[in-house]
Design a protein that fits this description.
With 458 residues, this protein is an all-alpha fold. It contains 16 helices and no strands. It has one domain. Helix 6 runs antiparallel to helix 9 and helix 8 packs antiparallel against helix 13.
Amino acid sequence: MTLFEILNNTNVKESDNYTAPEYVESSTVSLYKNQYRFGHTDDILLFVNGSSAENHDYVIGIIAFSIAILVLFIMLLGVIIKVKYLKNTSEQHDQLMSSNTRRKIFILCGIASIVSSSIFMSIGLNSLNETMIGVKETLARVDVKGYDVLDIVDSLESTAQDVKKIQEDLNSNPSCFGTIDKLVEALTNIYSGVQSKVIAFRSCIEVIFDATFSLTKKINDFDWLYPLAVSFGSIQIILTSFFILSTFPNSSLSLSPPRERGWLIYIYLFFIFSTVTVLLSCILACIFNSAVVGGSDFCSDSPDKKVTSIVEFHGQVTNLDALDILKYYVEGCTNYPKLLNNLDSILLRVITALDLVHNLGNRLTNMNNTLFNKVCGNHSLKLVNSTNAVIENLGNIVDDSRKLLFCSNWNPSYVQLMHEDFCQKGLDGFGTIFITQFLIVVLSMIMASLYPLWREKG
């Protein structure tokens, strides 16, 4: 079946039957989006598109809770250091609890801290690392599709120039072809339509390339954080295990009798370790709490309209066709964009032009070939044949463009990037890191209040 027959048969013409999946809000988003904001706004669009005062109000809202946690734990750590390590009241305080009970609590808290650190690395950090890898792979696939579009655009532009040249050739010798006003008009409409679509395509691809390049660069800039965080978690596990083993009387790492040099070395090492652990874990907990709350605000209900709002407000999209098609892909393939409608209309113009060329060819075929070749030359018939070939080729390219721009080719990449990688895996990783670091802070402070003053002489 020829292209002419395919395009004329609406039952054969391929269409996009893709349905975008519905966004499902994760439990992490549902939990953190309702965090108390101390009266400040939870509308993230005010932060993105609002005034400086609205930006400030939103930021205060998401960091207020984290700041409260940070201040509280620093104050408690200061109290523990003052009471336990800087004054002589600690031994009197330790008499309120037997040494065996304190040892058991210390060991249990240490084991819980090790488990939290393990979860921090195996689930939290791995989730974020897998998210980053997934985002990079998705962006790379989008880039490949973008280059496919550019190839189509180049072919479209080149073929449009061929159409323009044929139009000029037909106009240069109208006496040989008879009345071809409708064909010339059809070719003119095709050329003008294609040229405007080429501009829109290039604008759209420029936006996509800018976005993928910027995101990939930002992700690569933070690659060093993953091995650093794994090292931090590993050191926490190793040192916590060391201090747990030091509490067993028969262990080779056990403490020396109180007030001896070995005992003092252990206590100062633990003092440094617990202080650094509490401060770093508290800072991490606050950072990731703010991150998961902000991310939950963005992903609440659906991130789609927020994404298009950011692109529209901050992006460099000056071509309305490009903005419409980006919205179409992001917002679930609704509101069929003008650009794709125009591609369909170009196909109809191609059908009209092919029909006119076929009629012209049939008319010329019925003429006296010898007389026609003598008057108009052999090149005129070749021109008609080449016109048919060029227009049919253009129809193929336009149809390929339409298929390449199907929502089924682009929306799944967006869904993978935003709905799954960021709003689910990414925020789950943020939430896991916050919870584990919060637990490590609490457990480390309990351990700091107990170690190692239960050890008795003899």
